[in-house]
Amino acid sequence: MNGRRRANVSDERPSATSTAGDLDRRRLAEALDAVGDAVVVVDAAGEAVLRNNAADRFNDARHADALAGDALRELLDRARNGEECSRELQLYGPPAEVFWMTARPLMAEGRRIGAVGLVRDVTEARRIETVRRDFVANVSHELKTPVGALAVLAETLATTENPEVARQFAERIADEATRVGAIVDDLLDLGSIESQSTFRGSVAVTELVRSAIDRVGAAAAASGHRITVSDCDEVVTCDRRQVVSALANLLDNALKYSEPGTQISISAGSVDGWVTFEVADQGVGIPSRDLDRIFERFYRVDRARSRTTGGTGLGLAIVRNVAHAHHGDVTVDSSEGDGSVFRLRIPVAGNVSPLFSEGR
Ligand code: ADP
User: Fold this and answer.
1) What band does 17 get if pLDDT is binned at 50, 70 and 90?
2) CATH architecture label of 16-121
3) b/e string for 17-46 if b means 16 or more Cβ within 10 A?
4) What band does 4 get if pLDDT is binned at 50, 70 and 90?
5) Tens digit of pLDDT for each residue in 34-52?
6) Whose C-alpha lies nearest to ligand 1, atom 21?
7) Which atom of ligand 1 is nearest to the CA of 279?
8) CATH 3.30.565.10 in the chain, residues?
């Protein structure tokens, strides 16, 4: 059977004496194996008469699977007594898993002849729900602060008669409006990277690096940062707009989190079919306890600093999404007080995927 076992039907007979009934049962068994969910059928006495491959893991199981097996048995017992029932079971792992299970009675000619139970792995679905919920809560929270400030500033502006005070309030209104605009822009960027089928083309690495530097040129000139460049001759297949946006975000962070006048470097090199872009600064660095979290949406090490520099907390989430959309990755080395090095790696040959999972 090519190593594949089929659902276990208890009264299956040898093929030499196969009858139409046997064939039906085998067809049923094959069909149930094709279903991703675990399915178990018990008779009126509670004996399993049919169990598909996916349900095997809950039979005579150990550890977490044993808990799930017990929960399913309990539901099947209740179903044998005429009750339709279901529940969700959360296993804390590792790995953490969530199962939705249901059981219902089986009837024939008005008699209860057993029950059928089903177990569905809903771990990924629940994880995505949580990520979505957190995201909506975060976006609301992030927008609430500047929008609240706008309301208060506008009210005050309306009542002041002092032109100097009015000017100051108007400036602060412009700042807060810029902030809301930056958050909305980054959210739109994130959304389009996640959902859009990306445009793939051949682009010279040099051009990607130069375009990213152009994007931050004015800010770098204003702060007196020196940007040094060393790139390579490679040509990559990628979504140009996305990669430039990712590199510009890394450069923008390097500017924001290092002292004016210090040096920032951007370099690119190719090894074994991969291009690695490296952006290094001599800035404040990132505490090691925060390194795992900085790529999450809205995560900031120092909220106050990010706010004063106009940060949205979305820049690195965009970089990470671009990396994943290109089947690449982004990593960071950093030490507090010494600076940080971010590395964005993408395959030379492309393979840009329009879809990748969030919350990673
Ligand atoms: P933000 O808009 O706040 O800069 P990011 O997603 O770009 O958001 O970065 C997340 C957090 O990671 C920042 O708030 C900052 O604390 C930290 N960070 C990012 N880049 C650097 C860097 N080059 N040096 C120091 N800290 C950084």
Assistant:
1) low
2) 2-Layer Sandwich (3.30)
3) eeeeebeebbeebeebbeeebbbbbbeeee
4) very low
5) 988 999 999 999 999 989 9
6) 253
7) 23
8) 199-360
